[in-house]
Protein backbone atom coordinates (compact mmCIF):
# COMPACT_ATOMS: atom_id res chain seq x y z
CA UNK A 1 0.00 0.00 0.00
CA UNK A 2 1.49 3.34 -1.05
CA UNK A 3 0.55 6.98 -0.67
CA UNK A 4 1.15 10.20 -2.48
CA UNK A 5 4.59 11.70 -1.76
CA UNK A 6 5.30 12.07 1.96
CA UNK A 7 6.24 15.72 1.41
CA UNK A 8 2.60 16.54 0.66
CA UNK A 9 1.95 17.72 4.25
CA UNK A 10 4.17 19.31 6.91
CA UNK A 11 3.67 16.29 9.18
CA UNK A 12 4.50 13.97 6.29
CA UNK A 13 7.83 15.72 5.89
CA UNK A 14 8.62 15.35 9.58
CA UNK A 15 7.70 11.66 9.65
CA UNK A 16 9.65 10.93 6.48
CA UNK A 17 12.74 12.56 7.94
CA UNK A 18 12.31 10.61 11.17
CA UNK A 19 12.16 7.32 9.25
CA UNK A 20 15.29 8.25 7.24
CA UNK A 21 17.19 8.98 10.44
CA UNK A 22 15.90 6.23 12.77
CA UNK A 23 14.29 3.55 10.64
CA UNK A 24 10.67 2.38 10.19
CA UNK A 25 7.96 3.41 12.64
CA UNK A 26 5.40 1.13 14.20
CA UNK A 27 1.97 1.98 12.85
CA UNK A 28 1.00 2.99 16.40
CA UNK A 29 3.73 5.65 16.36
CA UNK A 30 2.67 6.82 12.90
CA UNK A 31 -1.02 6.97 13.89
CA UNK A 32 -0.25 8.80 17.14
CA UNK A 33 1.59 11.53 15.24
CA UNK A 34 -1.09 11.76 12.54
CA UNK A 35 -3.83 12.28 15.11
CA UNK A 36 -2.17 13.91 18.12
CA UNK A 37 0.99 15.69 17.03
CA UNK A 38 0.75 18.97 18.99
CA UNK A 39 1.25 21.15 15.93
CA UNK A 40 0.07 19.12 12.93
CA UNK A 41 -2.13 16.35 14.33
CA UNK A 42 -5.69 15.89 13.09
CA UNK A 43 -7.17 16.19 16.61
CA UNK A 44 -4.93 19.07 17.64
CA UNK A 45 -6.58 21.54 15.29
CA UNK A 46 -9.76 23.51 15.94
CA UNK A 47 -12.81 21.27 15.83
CA UNK A 48 -14.71 22.79 12.92
CA UNK A 49 -12.79 20.86 10.24
CA UNK A 50 -13.89 17.44 11.46
CA UNK A 51 -17.53 17.98 10.46
CA UNK A 52 -16.37 17.71 6.85
CA UNK A 53 -15.10 14.21 7.60
CA UNK A 54 -17.50 12.65 10.14
CA UNK A 55 -20.07 13.41 12.82
CA UNK A 56 -20.96 11.71 16.09
CA UNK A 57 -24.15 10.96 18.01
CA UNK A 58 -23.68 14.20 19.91
CA UNK A 59 -24.01 16.14 16.66
CA UNK A 60 -27.34 14.53 15.75
CA UNK A 61 -29.54 15.76 18.62
CA UNK A 62 -29.19 16.76 22.31
CA UNK A 63 -31.29 13.72 23.31
CA UNK A 64 -28.08 11.67 23.38
CA UNK A 65 -26.62 13.89 26.11
CA UNK A 66 -29.94 14.24 27.92
CA UNK A 67 -30.40 10.50 28.29
CA UNK A 68 -26.76 10.11 29.24
CA UNK A 69 -27.41 12.67 31.99
CA UNK A 70 -30.24 10.50 33.30
CA UNK A 71 -27.93 7.50 33.40
CA UNK A 72 -25.24 9.49 35.19
CA UNK A 73 -27.81 10.67 37.73
CA UNK A 74 -28.82 7.07 38.40
CA UNK A 75 -25.16 6.13 38.86
CA UNK A 76 -24.91 8.92 41.43
CA UNK A 77 -27.88 7.41 43.25
CA UNK A 78 -26.38 3.89 43.11
CA UNK A 79 -23.25 5.27 44.80
CA UNK A 80 -25.30 6.79 47.63
CA UNK A 81 -25.40 10.34 46.24
CA UNK A 82 -21.77 11.34 46.96
CA UNK A 83 -20.82 14.99 47.16
CA UNK A 84 -19.29 15.64 44.73
CA UNK A 85 -20.06 13.19 41.95
CA UNK A 86 -17.32 13.49 39.32
CA UNK A 87 -18.49 13.03 35.73
CA UNK A 88 -15.26 12.93 33.75
CA UNK A 89 -15.60 13.07 29.98
CA UNK A 90 -12.45 11.88 28.21
CA UNK A 91 -11.96 13.43 24.79
CA UNK A 92 -14.47 16.21 25.45
CA UNK A 93 -13.54 18.25 22.38
CA UNK A 94 -15.10 21.72 22.35
CA UNK A 95 -17.67 20.67 24.97
CA UNK A 96 -20.85 19.97 23.01
CA UNK A 97 -21.72 16.77 24.90
CA UNK A 98 -20.81 18.47 28.16
CA UNK A 99 -23.21 21.30 27.35
CA UNK A 100 -26.06 18.91 26.57
CA UNK A 101 -25.54 16.96 29.80
CA UNK A 102 -25.10 20.03 32.00
CA UNK A 103 -27.94 22.07 30.51
CA UNK A 104 -30.35 19.17 30.98
CA UNK A 105 -29.16 18.36 34.49
CA UNK A 106 -29.49 22.00 35.55
CA UNK A 107 -33.05 22.10 34.23
CA UNK A 108 -34.43 18.65 35.04
CA UNK A 109 -32.13 16.96 37.58
CA UNK A 110 -31.40 19.71 40.06
CA UNK A 111 -30.36 17.55 43.00
CA UNK A 112 -27.87 15.73 40.81
CA UNK A 113 -26.67 18.99 39.27
CA UNK A 114 -25.96 20.41 42.72
CA UNK A 115 -23.66 17.46 43.44
CA UNK A 116 -22.09 17.35 39.98
CA UNK A 117 -18.53 18.20 39.11
CA UNK A 118 -18.12 17.75 35.37
CA UNK A 119 -14.54 17.51 34.12
CA UNK A 120 -14.22 18.10 30.36
CA UNK A 121 -10.84 16.45 29.67
CA UNK A 122 -9.31 17.27 26.29
CA UNK A 123 -5.68 17.11 25.17
CA UNK A 124 -6.06 19.68 22.37
CA UNK A 125 -5.41 23.22 23.63
CA UNK A 126 -7.46 24.69 20.77
CA UNK A 127 -10.50 22.61 21.69
CA UNK A 128 -10.12 23.27 25.41
CA UNK A 129 -10.14 26.98 24.63
CA UNK A 130 -13.50 26.55 22.87
CA UNK A 131 -15.03 25.02 26.00
CA UNK A 132 -15.12 28.39 27.75
CA UNK A 133 -17.78 29.75 25.40
CA UNK A 134 -19.68 26.46 25.29
CA UNK A 135 -19.83 25.88 29.06
CA UNK A 136 -19.66 29.43 30.43
CA UNK A 137 -22.57 29.37 32.93
CA UNK A 138 -21.62 25.94 34.27
CA UNK A 139 -17.98 26.94 34.67
CA UNK A 140 -19.04 30.04 36.57
CA UNK A 141 -21.37 27.99 38.79
CA UNK A 142 -18.52 25.63 39.70
CA UNK A 143 -20.29 22.65 38.20
CA UNK A 144 -17.75 22.15 35.41
CA UNK A 145 -14.08 22.59 34.70
CA UNK A 146 -11.71 22.02 31.78
CA UNK A 147 -8.59 19.85 31.98
CA UNK A 148 -5.88 18.50 29.69
CA UNK A 149 -6.08 15.00 31.18
CA UNK A 150 -8.06 12.84 33.56
CA UNK A 151 -7.87 13.81 37.25
CA UNK A 152 -5.24 11.84 39.16
CA UNK A 153 -7.88 10.69 41.65
CA UNK A 154 -11.64 10.36 41.19
CA UNK A 155 -13.10 9.34 44.57
CA UNK A 156 -16.61 8.69 43.27
CA UNK A 157 -18.12 9.16 39.83
CA UNK A 158 -18.08 8.05 36.22
CA UNK A 159 -15.41 8.30 33.55
CA UNK A 160 -17.00 8.20 30.11
CA UNK A 161 -16.11 8.71 26.47
CA UNK A 162 -17.91 8.92 23.15
CA UNK A 163 -15.90 7.80 20.11
CA UNK A 164 -12.54 8.23 21.80
CA UNK A 165 -11.03 4.75 22.00
CA UNK A 166 -11.47 4.04 18.28
CA UNK A 167 -9.00 6.87 17.66
CA UNK A 168 -6.28 5.61 20.00
CA UNK A 169 -3.17 4.33 18.18
CA UNK A 170 -3.06 0.67 17.18
CA UNK A 171 -0.28 -1.67 16.09
CA UNK A 172 -0.85 -3.50 12.80
CA UNK A 173 0.11 -7.16 12.57
CA UNK A 174 -0.14 -10.03 10.11
CA UNK A 175 0.12 -13.79 10.59
CA UNK A 176 2.67 -14.89 8.00
CA UNK A 177 4.40 -18.25 7.60
CA UNK A 178 3.12 -19.41 10.95
CA UNK A 179 4.39 -16.39 12.90
CA UNK A 180 3.08 -13.07 14.15
CA UNK A 181 4.71 -10.22 12.24
CA UNK A 182 4.31 -6.50 12.72
CA UNK A 183 3.53 -4.14 9.85
CA UNK A 184 5.74 -1.08 10.14
CA UNK A 185 5.68 2.22 8.22
CA UNK A 186 8.75 2.64 6.06
CA UNK A 187 9.80 4.75 3.08
CA UNK A 188 10.14 3.81 -0.57
CA UNK A 189 11.68 6.87 -2.14
CA UNK A 190 9.31 9.70 -1.25
CA UNK A 191 6.37 7.45 -0.46
CA UNK A 192 5.35 5.76 2.76
CA UNK A 193 5.10 2.01 2.48
CA UNK A 194 4.12 -1.03 4.51
CA UNK A 195 7.13 -2.93 5.84
CA UNK A 196 6.79 -6.27 7.70
CA UNK A 197 9.16 -7.18 10.51
CA UNK A 198 9.39 -8.89 13.89
CA UNK A 199 7.07 -7.62 16.66
CA UNK A 200 8.31 -4.44 18.32
CA UNK A 201 7.21 -5.67 21.74
CA UNK A 202 6.28 -8.99 23.41
CA UNK A 203 3.04 -7.26 24.46
CA UNK A 204 1.64 -7.94 20.98
CA UNK A 205 1.75 -11.72 21.40
CA UNK A 206 0.46 -11.39 24.96
CA UNK A 207 -2.46 -9.28 23.72
CA UNK A 208 -3.79 -12.03 21.47
CA UNK A 209 -2.91 -14.88 23.84
CA UNK A 210 -4.78 -13.27 26.76
CA UNK A 211 -7.95 -13.24 24.66
CA UNK A 212 -7.54 -16.74 23.26
CA UNK A 213 -7.19 -15.39 19.73
CA UNK A 214 -5.18 -17.15 17.03
CA UNK A 215 -4.94 -15.42 13.66
CA UNK A 216 -5.01 -17.53 10.51
CA UNK A 217 -2.38 -17.43 7.78
CA UNK A 218 -2.42 -14.13 5.91
CA UNK A 219 -4.80 -12.42 8.35
CA UNK A 220 -4.12 -8.79 9.21
CA UNK A 221 -5.32 -7.29 12.47
CA UNK A 222 -4.93 -4.39 14.85
CA UNK A 223 -3.73 -4.65 18.44
CA UNK A 224 -5.09 -1.85 20.60
CA UNK A 225 -2.36 -1.71 23.23
CA UNK A 226 -2.99 2.01 23.80
CA UNK A 227 -6.68 1.35 24.57
CA UNK A 228 -5.66 -1.35 27.05
CA UNK A 229 -3.26 1.04 28.77
CA UNK A 230 -5.92 3.75 28.77
CA UNK A 231 -8.63 1.63 30.38
CA UNK A 232 -6.25 0.27 33.02
CA UNK A 233 -4.98 3.76 33.83
CA UNK A 234 -8.50 5.19 34.03
CA UNK A 235 -9.61 2.33 36.27
CA UNK A 236 -6.75 2.97 38.70
CA UNK A 237 -7.72 6.64 39.00
CA UNK A 238 -11.31 5.75 39.87
CA UNK A 239 -12.00 5.10 43.56
CA UNK A 240 -15.52 3.78 43.09
CA UNK A 241 -18.09 4.24 40.41
CA UNK A 242 -18.38 3.52 36.71
CA UNK A 243 -16.58 3.64 33.39
CA UNK A 244 -18.81 4.06 30.33
CA UNK A 245 -17.53 3.68 26.76
CA UNK A 246 -19.60 4.52 23.66
CA UNK A 247 -17.91 3.43 20.46
CA UNK A 248 -18.10 1.09 17.50
CA UNK A 249 -16.46 -2.30 17.81
CA UNK A 250 -16.93 -5.92 18.79
CA UNK A 251 -15.96 -8.59 21.27
CA UNK A 252 -12.65 -10.26 20.32
CA UNK A 253 -14.17 -13.41 18.80
CA UNK A 254 -16.10 -11.32 16.28
CA UNK A 255 -13.45 -8.66 15.78
CA UNK A 256 -10.84 -11.23 14.68
CA UNK A 257 -13.07 -13.62 12.73
CA UNK A 258 -12.96 -14.46 9.03
CA UNK A 259 -15.04 -11.37 8.14
CA UNK A 260 -12.16 -9.13 9.21
CA UNK A 261 -9.21 -10.67 7.35
CA UNK A 262 -7.79 -7.21 6.60
CA UNK A 263 -8.52 -5.76 10.03
CA UNK A 264 -10.81 -2.82 10.65
CA UNK A 265 -8.50 0.19 10.27
CA UNK A 266 -9.88 2.97 8.05
CA UNK A 267 -9.02 6.52 7.05
CA UNK A 268 -11.87 9.05 6.88
CA UNK A 269 -12.07 12.17 4.76
CA UNK A 270 -15.21 14.03 3.68
CA UNK A 271 -17.40 11.22 5.04
CA UNK A 272 -15.63 8.67 2.86
CA UNK A 273 -13.67 5.70 4.20
CA UNK A 274 -10.61 4.15 2.58
CA UNK A 275 -7.65 1.90 3.38
CA UNK A 276 -5.14 4.47 2.10
CA UNK A 277 -3.75 5.05 5.58
CA UNK A 278 -0.60 6.88 4.49
CA UNK A 279 -1.99 9.70 2.36
CA UNK A 280 -1.88 13.26 3.71
CA UNK A 281 -0.63 12.59 7.28
CA UNK A 282 -2.33 14.85 9.81
CA UNK A 283 -5.20 15.81 7.51
CA UNK A 284 -7.42 12.74 7.81
CA UNK A 285 -8.94 10.75 10.63
CA UNK A 286 -7.60 7.24 11.31
CA UNK A 287 -9.75 4.82 13.27
CA UNK A 288 -10.03 1.13 14.18
CA UNK A 289 -12.84 -0.84 15.82
CA UNK A 290 -12.76 -1.08 19.61
CA UNK A 291 -12.08 -4.47 21.20
CA UNK A 292 -14.49 -4.70 24.14
CA UNK A 293 -13.04 -8.01 25.31
CA UNK A 294 -9.65 -6.35 25.75
CA UNK A 295 -11.24 -3.44 27.63
CA UNK A 296 -12.87 -5.95 29.96
CA UNK A 297 -9.68 -7.95 30.59
CA UNK A 298 -7.32 -5.01 31.06
CA UNK A 299 -9.92 -3.13 33.10
CA UNK A 300 -9.98 -6.02 35.57
CA UNK A 301 -6.31 -5.37 36.26
CA UNK A 302 -7.40 -2.05 37.75
CA UNK A 303 -10.36 -3.45 39.70
CA UNK A 304 -13.04 -2.78 37.10
CA UNK A 305 -15.82 -5.34 36.68
CA UNK A 306 -18.04 -5.83 33.67
CA UNK A 307 -21.51 -4.31 34.14
CA UNK A 308 -22.85 -4.85 30.63
CA UNK A 309 -22.53 -4.34 26.88
CA UNK A 310 -25.52 -3.26 24.76
CA UNK A 311 -26.10 -1.47 21.49
CA UNK A 312 -26.60 2.28 21.49
CA UNK A 313 -30.19 1.69 20.37
CA UNK A 314 -30.81 -0.55 23.40
CA UNK A 315 -29.20 1.98 25.76
CA UNK A 316 -31.18 4.97 24.51
CA UNK A 317 -34.49 3.15 24.22
CA UNK A 318 -34.17 1.71 27.73
CA UNK A 319 -33.51 5.18 29.16
CA UNK A 320 -36.10 6.99 27.06
CA UNK A 321 -39.08 4.70 27.52
CA UNK A 322 -39.68 5.81 31.12
CA UNK A 323 -41.29 9.07 30.00
CA UNK A 324 -41.99 8.09 26.40
CA UNK A 325 -39.04 10.17 25.16
CA UNK A 326 -40.42 13.43 26.50
CA UNK A 327 -36.80 14.55 26.87
CA UNK A 328 -36.62 14.69 23.08
CA UNK A 329 -38.59 17.92 22.88
CA UNK A 330 -37.75 21.49 23.82
CA UNK A 331 -40.21 23.66 25.70
CA UNK A 332 -42.57 25.47 23.32
CA UNK A 333 -41.32 23.51 20.33
CA UNK A 334 -43.52 23.64 17.23
CA UNK A 335 -45.08 20.48 15.81
CA UNK A 336 -42.72 20.70 12.83
CA UNK A 337 -39.80 20.86 15.26
CA UNK A 338 -41.12 17.86 17.17
CA UNK A 339 -41.44 15.86 13.95
CA UNK A 340 -37.87 16.72 13.01
CA UNK A 341 -36.68 15.69 16.49
CA UNK A 342 -38.34 12.30 16.08
CA UNK A 343 -36.64 11.82 12.72
CA UNK A 344 -33.26 12.64 14.24
CA UNK A 345 -33.89 10.18 17.06
CA UNK A 346 -34.38 7.45 14.46
CA UNK A 347 -30.86 8.08 13.20
CA UNK A 348 -29.56 7.40 16.71
CA UNK A 349 -31.50 4.19 17.29
CA UNK A 350 -32.30 2.56 13.95
CA UNK A 351 -29.99 -0.27 12.82
CA UNK A 352 -29.33 1.41 9.47
CA UNK A 353 -28.24 4.55 11.32
CA UNK A 354 -26.10 4.58 14.46
CA UNK A 355 -28.27 2.36 16.64
CA UNK A 356 -26.57 -0.98 16.09
CA UNK A 357 -23.21 0.31 14.84
CA UNK A 358 -22.31 1.82 18.20
CA UNK A 359 -22.06 -0.10 21.45
CA UNK A 360 -22.25 1.03 25.07
CA UNK A 361 -19.89 -0.79 27.42
CA UNK A 362 -20.15 -0.14 31.16
CA UNK A 363 -17.76 -1.28 33.89
CA UNK A 364 -18.04 -0.69 37.62
CA UNK A 365 -15.75 -0.56 40.64
CA UNK A 366 -16.58 -0.63 44.34
CA UNK A 367 -20.30 -1.13 43.67
CA UNK A 368 -22.18 -4.36 44.39
CA UNK A 369 -23.99 -5.71 41.29
CA UNK A 370 -25.40 -2.34 40.15
CA UNK A 371 -28.59 -2.32 38.12
CA UNK A 372 -28.60 0.43 35.53
CA UNK A 373 -31.61 1.39 33.41
CA UNK A 374 -29.55 1.75 30.23
CA UNK A 375 -28.64 -1.94 30.35
CA UNK A 376 -32.05 -3.35 31.29
CA UNK A 377 -34.59 -4.94 28.91
CA UNK A 378 -37.25 -2.56 27.62
What's the SSE blueprint?
Blueprint: H1 10-22, E1 25-26, H2 27-36, H3 57-60, H4 63-78, E2 85-90, H5 96-108, H6 110-115, E3 116-121, H7 125-140, E4 144-147, E5 154-162, E6 171-176, E7 179-188, E8 191-197, H8 203-210, E9 220-223, H9 225-237, E10 238-250, H10 252-255, E11 266-269, E12 272-274, E13 285-287, E14 290-291, H11 292-300, E15 305-311, H12 312-320, H13 335-349, E16 358-365
Parallel strand pairs: 2-3, 2-5, 3-4, 5-10, 10-14
Antiparallel strand pairs: 1-7, 6-7, 6-9, 7-8, 10-16, 11-12, 11-13, 15-16
Q: What features would you describe in this structure?
A:
The structure is a single chain. By secondary structure, the protein is of the alpha/beta class. It has a domain at 48-168 and 226-256 and 293-375: Rossmann fold (3-Layer(aba) Sandwich), CATH 3.40.50.12710. The chain has helices spanning 10-22, 27-36, 57-60, 63-78, 96-108, 110-115, 125-140, 203-210, 225-237, 252-255, 292-300, 312-320, 335-349, and strands at residues 25-26, 85-90, 116-121, 144-147, 154-162, 171-176, 179-188, 191-197, 220-223, 238-250, 266-269, 272-274, 285-287, 290-291, 305-311, 358-365. The strands form three sheets. Strands 2, 3, 4, 5, 10, 14, 15 and 16 form an eight-stranded mixed beta sheet that branches. Strands 1, 6, 7, 8 and 9 form a five-stranded antiparallel beta sheet that branches. Helix 5 (96-108) runs parallel beside helix 7 (125-140).
